[in-house]
Task: inverse folding
């Protein structure tokens, strides 16, 4: 078994030869969390049955917290927004305006039935996306997600800029990633983000790092990086509310 996620061969997640390109959908307004769960359930079933192509769905949520399969009640310190049980892996996190959520529905049975390697491929996707803005995102073996070093805060300090939480059903993935573009970072203070309690580790965003980046800029970078890791995407679909 490979112990270092950085050494995994990510090229095996490329789109299978002869397969359809991944559909690319961008919601034009915040999507309520229960609606997103229902939409993912339906699409995952259709993909598993061979009745629909794979999909990447980019969206924002209204302010809310979600708890994964490893979530703990103690991680909700002073929740000021609704909290939902998500069914994804991971612990408690925040979603809200200014955060780009990407729900990724891929048929891993056809690509590579390896959950650990799939998570590494999502990390690689995020890292390549951040590189488009000259941000060095890094993996941590003991912490899922993508991190940036913060020497301005002190030696050993670093902040999480992107979270990952996935679930599989019949080897079709759903849930996915969340990149902080310009969310209200104070909303993370009401929880223990992803169970990380070390005071050296915080949460940041692209704008917090001093970059005047828009959501549209991030979407362009996400699509380019996705094609490098997972293969081509279909022509951009009309924007939809989900």
Result:
């Amino acid at each position: 078994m490979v112990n270092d996620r950085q050494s995994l061969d990510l090229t095996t997640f490329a789109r299978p030869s002869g397969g359809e390109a991944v559909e690319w959908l961008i919601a034009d307004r915040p999507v309520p969390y229960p609606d997103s769960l229902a939409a993912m359930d339906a699409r995952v079933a259709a993909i598993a049955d061979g009745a629909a192509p794979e999909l990447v769905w980019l969206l924002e949520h209204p302010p809310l917290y979600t708890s994964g399969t490893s979530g703990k009640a103690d991680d909700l310190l002073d929740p000021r927004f609704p909290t939902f049980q998500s069914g994804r892996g991971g612990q408690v996190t925040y979603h809200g305006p200014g955060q780009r959520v990407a729900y990724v529905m891929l048929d891993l049975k056809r690509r590579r039935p390896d959950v650990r390697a799939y998570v590494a491929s999502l990390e690689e996707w995020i890292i390549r996306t951040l590189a488009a803005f000259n941000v060095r995102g890094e993996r941590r073996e003991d912490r899922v997600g993508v991190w940036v070093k913060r020497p301005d805060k002190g030696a050993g300090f670093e902040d999480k800029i992107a979270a990952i939480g996935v679930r599989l059903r019949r080897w079709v993935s759903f849930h996915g990633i969340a990149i902080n573009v310009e969310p209200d970072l104070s909303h993370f203070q009401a929880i223990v983000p992803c169970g990380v309690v070390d005071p050296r580790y915080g949460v940041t965003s692209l704008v917090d790092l001093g970059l005047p980046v828009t959501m549209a800029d991030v979407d362009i970078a996400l699509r380019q990086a996705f094609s490098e890791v997972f293969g081509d995407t279909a022509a951009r679909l009309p924007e939809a509310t989900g």
